[in-house]
Design goal:
It is built from four helices and 16 strands. The N and C termini lie far apart (48 Å). The strands form five sheets. Strands 2-5-16-9 form a four-stranded antiparallel β-sheet. A four-stranded mixed β-sheet has the order 13-12-10-15. The protein has a three-stranded mixed β-sheet with strand order 1-8-6, with no helix packed on it. With 371 residues, the protein is an alpha+beta fold.
Length: 371
């Protein structure tokens, strides 16, 4: 079945894992040569010890007050403010029978054994520029808009550069990296809304016990995005969901996209509202994170596996250790209402750069500064 945002030509391409998010545009082809090296985790398996109960934060945590705030976690020119996401168990996935449920979203219980810090917003263009010295975005010239058109390896490179900038230990080791960060969209580059990036690595490994920044795992991302929302609860009618998301997510309807004209934003003559929007311009979720749904989809650390791990409770899952695809989450400014939800999993080639795909960073609260 053709997904609501897909262009009819996409249905004629050869069989592949469907790309459900906004950056799946007419003519896109993920079949270009790719560095298909998996992320591996150094050391032993995650500690499965039960975590202490931790009460969830609320939206006031974005302000410099309350128990979830520390002045050292305030926004800087190189990164967003950081919010503490509590350890705990939650239901991950979506319930079978719910509208737009996919077979790779099996509902299962996951435990995050340690709290972690998550960026309150997606990385902005100004923050990327401050750390990397480049401007890769298709919708450039908006300092507070999320950076986009960065591939998975470039997102990893950003986390390493940000960690070094703050004097924190790196969370990844890389080998065989080549190419130029931000290159690969042709000339003039600004005219290509998607492409396969030039920068890649033959191997990326997670370093256990690091104090620096990294991409969230799928489980961490969904824990933070759900903010306590139970996916097994009764499904909202579309009208109620549309009303709730209207003030919280930039997606196809709130970005004023004329879908019949593909990317032609002509509704009410407000062409400037097509594309990304400044971060934190809508209300946050219940734990204080902005734009977890919509604006840009966000890279996760995991390799994509259509089957979630089995077990009554899965502790600190890190996804598959093999396979050519990485996971993106959250939907973007171009995503239809049915697909803007926390349970949606979207696989993409790690070299993919698109104008609906960016990143959010996380890190451990551990560190010599206590922050």
């Amino acid at each position: 079945m053709l997904r609501p945002h897909a262009h009819p030509r996409a249905a004629c391409s050869r069989r592949r894992v469907p790309h459900r998010l906004a950056d799946r545009l007419p003519g896109a082809d993920d079949s270009a040569n790719d560095a298909r090296q998996p992320l591996t985790i150094q050391g032993s398996s995650p500690d499965a010890a039960a975590a202490r109960p931790v009460a969830p934060p609320d939206a006031s945590a974005v302000l410099p007050e309350g128990p979830w705030w520390h002045p050292g976690r305030a926004e800087t020119p190189s990164r967003p403010a950081l919010l503490l996401i509590p350890a705990g168990a939650f239901l991950m996935g979506s319930a079978a029978g719910q509208r737009a449920h996919a077979s790779d979203e099996r509902l299962h219980r996951v435990e995050i054994s340690q709290p972690f810090l998550a960026a309150a917003t997606e990385i902005t263009q100004a923050q990327w520029q401050a750390v990397m010295g480049t401007s890769p975005s298709f919708y450039s010239g908006c300092d507070r808009c999320p950076v986009e058109r960065v591939n998975w390896y470039e997102a990893v490179a950003f986390t390493l550069a940000l960690s070094a900038r703050e004097g924190r230990t790196a969370c990844y080791t890389t080998q065989g990296c080549s190419g130029v960060v931000g290159a690969g969209c042709g000339r003039p580059e600004a005219r290509r809304h998607w492409c396969m990036g030039d920068y890649r690595c033959q191997q990326v490994e997670r370093v256990p016990g690091c104090t620096g920044y990294r991409l969230p795992t799928e489980a961490e991302w969904e824990r933070a995005a759900r903010a306590g929302l139970d996916p097994s609860a009764q499904e909202e009618p579309p009208a109620a969901r549309r009303a709730r998301l209207g003030g919280a997510a930039w997606y196809a309807e709130t970005s004023l996209i004329d879908r019949a004209g593909e990317l032609n934003c002509t509704i009410s003559g407000l062409a400037g509202r097509c594309g990304t929007h400044p971060v934190a311009s809508l209300r946050p979720n219940d734990w204080g994170l902005f734009d977890t749904l919509g604006n840009v989809a966000e890279w996760c650390e995991d390799a994509y596996d259509a089957e979630y791990p089995a077990g009554p409770v899965v502790v600190d899952p890190v996804g598959s250790g093999s396979g050519p695809l990485k996971v993106t989450r959250g939907g973007s400014w171009f995503t239809s209402l049915a697909w803007v939800r926390p349970g949606l999993r979207d696989p993409a080639m790690p070299l993919r750069r698109a104008n609906g795909l960016g990143l959010r960073v996380v890190r451990s609260p551990r560190g010599s500064d206590g922050m």
